[in-house]
Design brief:
With about 475 residues, this protein is of the alpha/beta class. Helix content is about 35%, strand content about 20%. The protein has four domains: about 120 residues, 3-Layer(aba) Sandwich (Rossmann fold), CATH 3.40.50; about 100 residues, no CATH class; about 110 residues, Cupredoxins -  blue copper proteins (Immunoglobulin-like, Sandwich); about 90 residues, Cytochrome Bc1 Complex, Chain D, domain 2 (Orthogonal Bundle), CATH 1.10.760.10. The chain contains eleven helices and 17 strands. Strands 2-1-3-4-5 form a five-stranded mixed sheet, sandwiched between helices. The protein has a five-stranded mixed sheet with strand order 8-7-6-10-13, with no helix packed on it. Strands 9-15-14-11-12 form a five-stranded mixed sheet. Strand 6 and strand 7 form a beta hairpin.
Length: about 475
């Protein structure tokens, strides 16, 4: 040690606001008679240290690593400019502490301190202060070993693999989607499967590494030191940019391919069905067959071209088993198309997948997929003309979705019940009253907002009359009059 200081005694300055640390370390150093060193002063603050440096000219400053009042970063930053032979040691004497860091101002600029500290931890032997012999309790900085890094890598990889295997096994055991009942659903389910697997892989990678790091590299009790300084890693940054970008491009290509599959045209002309949504019912019109229905009936293995529109707000046509979904928009110029080819005979439900008002939850209609011969029989049964105005009015009541708002049993939905309403005096929202007769009903159908019954809102589609003939309106009035 004498040689390292050119034969002169080491002049040591101790910086700590803890008396026990300063006095105890001073006693320890002074007891070591074999060393050529002398403690020239004890300081508790940075300002005192600055004064002592000028007056005492120490060769070595030992800083209490665990003293929060003596800021290590600030201390080093204040003593790194200029020439000289001063060394600074950061020393921890806590129980279990084994950390000593040396800083030599003779070879280092202030801007290099973080890089130097990292390099010192990785490549340098531990600095042993004068008078402290190697052995038990000697402050040391363990040098990282490649074998330890490989052990952590293998252990973390095993955690990720276990999570991934468990996730994939669970995915195979649980049916996350309802049964598939359309040709278009096969392509969509294939894309869903790839997304689910990608989610499992990413979840396992992120959560596995996070959990392993929390358990293995967590801060030990009593450790208040800063973590190692880390700079950017160009290779890692390039990798985590290119890999996600490539994944997004692959998924985009697969999504485009899937979209092309579900919009593919059939060899023969599809069955045309006009789907009309209104608050809160569905109406299905078969213009080529002359049928209007409140249930969607389709022949199996035959493509249907659904032309979707709305009489009021935005609705969304969705049969979960068919997988495909499309919005129904208001306005004649916004008819949307959706192709579906049922592949499984059964009964399903069409739901509205767009929040559309108070009874959105109840906007459901039956969907039946039947054999071709059964579909032909259904068409014949629906094309039989109704026998009279009341019977036809009941049919229009169902087909035009009137039942969604008006009951015929006296119960109140969102509009007045039709039971016993004909010929009755009704209060209007403006405070007047009106007789529910033929003219009032016609006016309410053609101009729904003209006279609103007190206690109700104007929720009736404004253009409902555009889809009804005069004869159908007369049938509907006859049906209302019959509900006495």
């Amino acid at each position: 040690m004498n040689g390292s200081n050119q034969g002169k005694p080491w002049r040591i300055l101790i910086a700590s606001s803890h008396p026990l640390f300063a006095k105890g370390l001073r006693s320890l150093l002074e007891e070591r008679r074999e060393m050529d060193a002398v403690v020239v002063g004890l300081v508790a603050t940075i300002d005192e240290a600055l004064t002592a440096l000028e007056s005492l000219q120490p060769d070595l400053v030992i800083v209490d690593y665990d003293d929060e009042r003596v800021n290590r970063d600030e201390f080093l930053a204040r003593f790194v400019e200029g020439e000289g032979r001063l060394r600074v040691v950061l020393l921890s004497l806590k129980e279990g502490g084994s950390e000593a860091i040396v800083y030599d101002r003779r070879t280092m600029a202030a801007s290099q301190i973080d890089e130097w500290l990292e390099m010192w931890n990785e490549n340098q032997a531990p600095f042993i202060p004068p008078g402290i012999s190697p052995g038990k309790g000697t402050p040391q900085i363990p040098k990282p070993r490649r074998r330890d890094s490989m052990k952590h890598f293998i252990a973390a990889a095993l955690v990720v693999i276990v999570l991934m295997a468990a996730g994939l096994y669970g995915y195979q055991q649980i049916n996350l989607l309802p049964e598939q009942a359309s040709l278009q659903g096969a392509s969509i389910d294939n894309l869903f499967g790839i997304h689910f697997i990608a989610i499992i892989v990413l979840f396992s990678l992120i959560v596995g590494l996070m959990v392993y790091s929390i358990l293995v590299f967590r801060r030990k009790a009593g450790d208040t030191s800063d973590g190692p300084h880390m700079e950017g890693n160009t290779k890692l940054e390039v990798a985590w940019t290119i890999v996600p970008l490539g994944a997004v491009l692959v998924l985009a290509y697969m999504g485009g391919t899937t979209l092309g599959d579900i919009q593919a045209l059939p060899d023969q002309k599809p069955l045309q069905v006009k789907v009309v949504g209104s608050q809160w019912a569905w109406r299905f019109e078969y213009p080529e067959l002359g049928i209007i229905s409140t249930e969607l009936v389709l022949p199996v293995d035959e493509q249907a071209l659904l032309e979707l529109s709305s009489t009021d707000v935005i609705h969304s046509f969705w049969v979960p088993e068919f997988r495909v979904k499309q919005d129904a928009l208001p306005g004649e110029d916004f008819v949307r198309e959706l192709r579906v080819t049922p592949t499984q005979i059964g009964e399903y439900k069409v739901r509205c997948a767009e929040l559309c008002g108070r009874l959105h939850h109840a906007m459901e209609s039956p969907v039946k997929v039947i054999a071709q011969q059964d579909f032909e029989a259904w068409v014949k049964s629906k094309t039989v003309a109704c026998t009279g105005p009341v019977e036809c009015g009941n049919l229009w009541y169902q087909q035009f979705g009137c039942q969604a708002c008006h009951s015929i049993d006296g119960s109140v939905v969102v509009g007045p019940s039709w039971k016993g309403i004909f010929g009755k005096e009704e209060s209007i929202s403006d405070g007047t009253s009106v007789l529910v007769d033929h003219d009032y009903i016609v006016e309410s159908i053609r101009n729904p907002g003209a006279k609103i019954t007190a206690g109700f809102q104007n929720l009736m589609p404004a253009n409902i009359a555009a889809n009804m003939t005069d004869a159908q309106i007369e049938d509907l009035i006859a049906f209302i009059e019959s509900l006495k």
